[in-house]
Write a structure and sequence with these properties.
- The protein is an alpha/beta fold.
- The chain has 2 domains: about 55 residues; about 240 residues, HUPs (Rossmann fold, 3-Layer(aba) Sandwich).
- Helices cover about 45% and strands about 10% of the residues.
- Strands 7-6-3-8-9 form a 5-stranded parallel β-sheet, with helices on both faces. A two-stranded antiparallel sheet has the order 1-2.
- It is elongated, with a radius of gyration of 37 Å.
- It comes from Quillaja saponaria.
- InterPro entries: C57A10.07/YOR238W (IPR055323).
- Keywords: Membrane, Transmembrane, Transmembrane helix.
- This is Transmembrane protein.
Length: about 350
């Protein structure tokens, strides 16, 4: 039996001829070429599907139309559900409204002290002196600092008389040259330095701050939202503490703008310093006229004033903590807010 060497005449070489193309003229083996278009080519598949769909549309146009409409409705529904789920998760991340874990759930009434300046002294020993406060030019009058302390004391006294009241000092970081200090924290610190005017045991534990308001309307609106964050409900009664000459602005214009019942709204006004009273009355008349034309302070000079009183561009968290009145926060108009509010049912 002959042994065939592995070479051109071997059975293995012959088997290779069978698997490949053999060129008789040159005596060489050509490698098999892969087809240019694979049966799984995605572009070819898309074109084929498009051709078939076009052909089917010509035969049954109404069937294709209704199928397409049905698929479109399904896609829109899925996207809508996904968006709602995202918003729900976002709201839980911002503020857990249903947790019921509120620090002051038993308090029912709001006492709000509107801030007017920032305390800048390194100590709290001279809270009655103007040098301890950052004052605008129109505030630089003898006795002005004492009026701030009077507001703080009045707020503490009113709160002490109501076991169901929550005291909020309201006012943001409104003065750039005063640094990142809020009016609200300034008032709270002064109350602390004064030993809460003898009411430390009954008032301090329920005295907090609202640190974003930039004008008197925001003092009221933001404090209502802050009350909701702290108690889980909206105030049954509201008492505002400020200058007596601002009563018309707060008790009528701002109260009406948020639709709060007049019978449940109270005002505790204290006098301005004797040296500033005349100028204060003139300035108040001008501001009151502006709020009469723009009750929500969202246009013109009132809007620009708020922007100037936000030198550090603080992000305002509201209405995250009071989603029931988010429409009120976004409303801008001359007429009263037309939507329903939580206190609309108050007697």
């Amino acid at each position: 039996m002959k042994n065939y060497p592995i070479g051109s005449g071997s059975p293995k070489s012959f088997y290779a001829y069978q698997r490949r193309d053999f060129d008789l003229e040159s005596g060489t083996i050509k490698r098999a070429r892969k087809p240019k278009n694979s049966p799984l080519n995605p572009i070819r598949m898309i074109k084929s599907f498009g051709s078939r769909l076009h052909y089917y549309f010509k035969l049954h146009p109404f069937v294709v139309f209704f199928i397409s409409l049905f698929l479109g409705v399904i896609i829109i529904t899925i996207l809508s559900l996904s968006e709602n789920r995202y918003r729900t998760l976002s709201s839980y991340g911002n503020f857990d409204m249903d947790s019921g874990n509120y620090p002051f759930p038993k308090l029912q009434n709001l006492v709000m002290v509107a801030g007017h300046s920032v305390y800048t002294s390194s100590s709290c020993g001279k809270v009655d002196t103007e040098a301890s406060w950052f004052l605008e030019s129109y505030q630089k009058h003898p006795g002005q600092a004492a009026t701030f302390v009077t507001h703080i004391q009045e707020g503490v006294e009113v709160t002490a008389k109501d076991d169901l009241a929550l005291l909020l000092f309201s006012g943001g970081e409104t003065r750039k040259d005063a640094g990142p200090r809020s009016e609200a924290q300034s008032y709270w610190a002064v109350a602390e330095s004064k030993g809460w005017f003898g009411k430390i045991d009954t008032v301090k534990w329920r005295a907090l701050t609202e640190e974003h308001a930039r004008d008197s309307f925001e003092n009221l609106l933001f404090s209502v939202c802050r009350f909701r964050e702290l108690t889980g409900a909206y105030p049954q009664n509201i008492t505002v503490v400020s200058y007596d000459f601002k009563e018309e602005r707060f008790a009528h214009l701002h109260r009406s703008a948020i639709g709060f019942p007049e019978s449940r709204f109270f005002y505790a006004g204290t006098p301005a310093s004797l040296t500033s009273k005349e100028a204060a009355l003139k300035g108040e008349a001008l501001v009151r006229a502006q709020f009469q034309e723009d009750p929500y302070g969202c246009r013109g000079s009132l809007h620009h004033k708020k922007l100037r009183r936000d030198p550090f561009h603080r992000s305002i968290p509201y209405p995250n903590g009071c989603h029931e009145i988010q429409g009120l926060f976004r409303y801008c108009g001359e007429a009263p807010y037309p939507g329903s509010l939580p206190w609309s049912s108050y007697n």
